[in-house]
Write a sequence for this structure.
């Protein structure tokens, strides 16, 4: 009988697309649901007691906020996302982060995020959006944004060609929109904290897409029991957007 590949084997190297030209790739991971259970059982030097009891223990741990065993599982991702996402992401201090350097690597033409829709300012929440601008007004804004990026990039190139340092020439680039690549590492406990905040409907749409992709494509297949417990105790209100 051929052995089933482990989640680790199938997930490492997997890359999923996010937004217009972003992505998330799993570079490495350590541990699984059983590692969490076994870490908890070290308290009395025990190990697996069969799937049913193991899963029950894992649910007990999360329900009662006995969270440190979840820190035994780690993920390392490579992420490409616009700076507006990066800026919100790095507020999560429990992640370990290394980023591309705009001082070292020149930006390429087209390294800019073009939103698929122009969301409108929410009437009763100063930090949120609701609904979309449609029709010719929306098309005109998209066109204007593309022209703005082209113009900015041309000025950036002009400065570089004049010998200006990359660290200064980048002042011409539209900061929030520029795509960056970084490597991030996090444990399952702190990833759940990030997911709870950033998959929520009040998170900005762009970072929400990254959080949803992390959850659906990596967290859930890597840790199926933990994901079930997460949806039961941590985020019972979670519903996938259409
Ligand atoms: C919808 C939304 C809107 C937001 N709006 C704003 C905004 O307008 N302005 C703004 O500045 N930020 C804003 N934030 C960011 C927010 O304030 C947090 O910085 C961010 O969500 C990270 O959360 P955290 O500190 O819990 O996570 P992490 O930094 O990952 O920390 C995880 C947990 O570890 C503990 N911890 C970590 N570091 C420390 C520490 N030094 N001391 C004590 N405990 C610590 C805390 O329990 C914390 O909850 C917003 C976030 C969201 C989700």
């Amino acid at each position: 009988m051929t052995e089933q590949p482990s989640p680790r084997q199938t997930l490492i190297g997997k890359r999923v697309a996010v937004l217009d030209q972003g992505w998330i790739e799993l570079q490495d991971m350590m541990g699984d649901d059983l590692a969490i259970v076994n870490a908890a059982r070290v308290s009395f030097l025990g190990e697996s007691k069969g799937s049913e009891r193991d899963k029950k223990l894992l649910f007990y741990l999360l329900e009662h906020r006995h969270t440190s065993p979840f820190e035994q599982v780690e993920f390392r991702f490579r992420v490409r996302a616009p700076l507006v996402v990066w800026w919100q992401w790095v507020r999560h201090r429990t992640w370990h982060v290394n980023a591309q350097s705009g001082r070292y690597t020149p930006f390429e033409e087209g390294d800019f995020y073009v939103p698929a829709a122009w969301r409108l300012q929410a009437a009763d929440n100063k930090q949120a959006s609701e609904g979309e601008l449609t029709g010719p007004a929306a098309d005109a804004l998209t066109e204007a944004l593309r022209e703005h990026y082209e113009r900015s990039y041309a000025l950036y190139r002009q400065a570089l060609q004049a010998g200006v340092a990359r660290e200064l020439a980048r002042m011409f680039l539209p900061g929030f929109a520029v795509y960056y690549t970084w490597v991030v590492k996090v444990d399952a406990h702190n990833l759940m904290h990030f997911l709870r905040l950033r998959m929520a409907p009040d998170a900005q749409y762009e970072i929400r897409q990254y959080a949803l992709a992390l959850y659906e494509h990596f967290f859930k297949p890597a840790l199926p029991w933990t994901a079930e417990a997460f949806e039961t105790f941590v985020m019972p209100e979670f519903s996938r957007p259409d």
Observations:
- Residues 33 and 225 are 6 Å apart (CA to CA).
